[in-house]
Queue: 3 jobs
Job 1
Amino acid sequence: MTGPEQDVTDMQIKMLALDLDGTLTDSEKKVTPRTAQDLALAAEKGVRIVLASGRPTAGVQPLARELGLDKNGGCILSYNGGKIIDCASGLTLVQHAFPPELIGPVCQFAREAGTVALTYDANGIVTEQPADPYVEIEARTNRIPVRKVEDLTAAVDFPINKILVVGDPDRMPHVEELMQQKFAGQLSIYRSQPFFIEVMPLGIEKAASLELLLRTQGLFAKNLMACGDGWNDLPMIRFAGLGVAMGNAVPQVKAAADYVTADNDHDGVGLAIEKFILQEETNP
């Protein structure tokens, strides 16, 4: 395989998909000034910026506004691909609803596995266990409130895009495996963090929704550069014409990537933008 440095001109990168936590944002959940400037320069060159996260839409919107995506044609891909909105118009471009008949079985499985299930309404998180430490992490990360309900299955009488199952990181690989077996052929299930398992409509992940978005723009995988660090980023790293792993990425993402940049605390995304989109020599 030829190196991405040689292929980047032919790729004609027109879209940049960025995971947030551990990728675009640093350890303090902020975008560094250098990376923010590089994003603005990429947008000026006509590259469409897509914030591609497992977070709910409400948890991504403040950052999208901070980066000016409502002014430069950017998009939010939330719920790991369950929904894509255009930041300027607010229009929903892609949406996949969670099967209502599977909400109860997933919630029951989570209880029996000693984990906690949560989902999202228009205002924030909905769960039976608001004091769970991993629920609190999700709330803090997204800066959204938590609403306690007695029975999550009964409370969800509105369309949702995903269920998040949270729990002890040591147990989650086994829980993930059991869930994948139980819901095989019905749901897509994968970890995004050591303590988070994303439960999605079947076949829905970041790459599948990015492919739909590219089609609406008359673009192809070769026009996409994607940056990520976690297990749920693997599909888009493999799909993109140029897959970039962060220096802090899990080994599987680094192995799948075309290029490994610096970590999220040292302008990894900005350096990759400079190298492959702005095509400047960088010195990490």
Job 2
Amino acid sequence: MAKKFSELVAKMPKEYRAEAEAMTQKMLAEMPLDELRRARGLSQKMLAEALHIQQPAIAKLEKRTDMYISTLRSHIEAMGGQLEVVARFPDGSVKINTFGDLATEV
């Protein structure tokens, strides 16, 4: 007989549940664009409509490993998010604001 996932989790030792939660949060904090889109409950077609482009362009964009920051920004904003560029160094992090006014300059 199948058991509910919540029942299985409840039987797990606390340290395993904490470890699983930490892994879940790490996976949610780092994901490719296609997974992010799906996690936000959007189809490629829905996102394409929001960006006023064709669905195949979304598929192509999600496979790219290199793109303009403005392209990435519009993609993220169409999903309801906000893009921040952060440089991380051994002695601290710096938010790069050079790209902050791209939308108003275009």
Job 3
Amino acid sequence: MKWYDKIKAVHLAVTDAVAHRKHLKGNRYFVWQEDGANRFCADGRHAERAVTGTTDLYTRLEYDPWVEAFEAALDAAEDIVWDLESVLYEPDTGYTHYEWSWEVL
């Protein structure tokens, strides 16, 4: 399975309100994007490569159940490590903005 199929599957396990690199309209949705890669070299060659990226959840629900569902889907996925980087309330939009970083083989 390709790395992007793995990360897409994690999001789709929670909802289909998800987009790659673009914001959606609505009261809650995920946006994900890749932002780099980590490589492990051995014998002068790339032996392993992991793609890094972030996922943002924009929600107007307090204590949104998608947070726990998304983290459970990340935990259940093979070859994905992740961290919750920040949780911010945006008073201008009314969204709570969660940001996760992840790395997938």
